[in-house]
Amino acid sequence: MSVANDPGPSEKAGIYHVLLASLFVLLALQPYAHVAEGLFVQLAFAGLLLAGLAAVAARRRLFVVGLILGVPAVVLLFVSGGIPTAASGVLAIATLLLISFVILRRILKHPVVTSGTVSAGLVVYLILGVIWAKAYWLVEHFRPDSFTGLSGTADIVVERDLFYYSYVTLATLGYGDISPVSPQARSLAITEAIIGQLYLVVMVAGLVGLSLTQRQRRPDQ
């Protein structure tokens, strides 16, 4: 599919704003993850996946792949009554990676800074935190005691704590209240911190450069 047929961030600004809002809703609901056995958080997460799939709908093949991955992930959330499962975690990670890939591809192919571009860039950054939160949960699920400082052993509580830990690591705050102790957990933490910082540096520098270029071209047009 050509660039002309693939809508850029400006054409998809509305859905990126919705995606960004859904991510903030997911963040805001984390302190209440235990309410109704995590159902509200999982509903917010399902909304995030569905909004993400809507964002990639213009790319038919990728949209089909997204449906194959994302729909079962959402269904498993409801079948399990809001309790996270390994299968839903793996499918969710794959779906979010696909969504991030499509959004980043559009940003790079349409080098024009708009509100949609900024929202798209922020969406990818925040999705990184969700991806790693799911990955941390999978590590703890298959290798218990991979993290110290967790406030409980129930899957819902562990997922909530690791969601918090993921964003603390992504922002390189390093409070130290939760710490990775297994090799797999430590490797994931290092990777998230590096990728999070590299993404911010590259994305911010790129957007600033594009914005300056646009301003320089305006007087000549």
Descriptive terms for the model:
221 residues; 7 helices; 71% helix; Helix Hairpins
Written account of the structure:
- This protein is mostly helical and 221 residues long.
- It has one domain (13-215): Helix Hairpins, CATH 1.10.287.70.
- Helices cover 71% and strands 2% of the residues.
- The chain contains seven helices and two strands.
- The chain has helices at 13-29, 39-55, 60-79, 86-109, 115-142, 155-170, 183-217; strands at residues 147-148, 179-180.
- A two-stranded antiparallel ribbon has the order 1-2.
- Helix 2 packs antiparallel against helix 3 and helix 2 packs parallel to helix 4.
- The model has no long low-confidence stretch (mean pLDDT 86).
Short description:
With 221 residues, the chain is an all-alpha fold.
CATH topology: Helix Hairpins
CATH class: Mainly Alpha
Enumerate the strands of the largest sheet in spatial order, edge to edge or round the barrel: 1-2
The assigned structural class equals mainly alpha
Distance between the termini: 29 Å
Helix content: over 70%
Number of domains: 1
Number of strands: 2
SSE layout:
Blueprint: H1 13-29, H2 39-55, H3 60-79, H4 86-109, H5 115-142, E1 147-148, H6 155-170, E2 179-180, H7 183-217
